[in-house]
Amino acid sequence: MNALIVRFVGCAASLAVTGLLFPDSCSLHGVLFGGLLLTLLYTFLRPLLQLLVSPFNLFVFGLLTPLTDALLVLWAAAWVKNLSLHYWEAVLTALLISLAYYPYSVWKKRKLAGMPVA
């Protein structure tokens, strides 16, 4: 449950930053519902999508990962009314989501490895 909350906060914050950088792209409604939908897509659909793309991703040294994440952001933008992102805005948002979730994933790996967590 903790990971879902962190994922939602990261997705919503990333959409808010995208909204600040590109003012016509999203509103508060789009940030909240887009963050919720992205949380669900990242939790349930992203692992399957990464599994399907993994043979190609090995050949291009992981460069398809941000592009598949951008695809999820574009899907969320298509489903949420007040969220309109273009492709490169979706790529930026996907990279921001990855950056927002990175500290939590490092903390989780340290906790599972038994290392001291600050």
From TrEMBL:
The keyword Transmembrane helix belongs to this UniProt entry's keyword annotation: yes
Keywords assigned by UniProt, alphabetized: Membrane, Transmembrane, Transmembrane helix
InterPro entries in the record: Phage_holin_4_2
Residues annotated as transmembrane: 28-45, 57-79, 85-104
Domain of life: Bacteria
This protein's name: Uncharacterized protein
Lineage: Bacteria, Bacillati, Bacillota, Clostridia, Eubacteriales
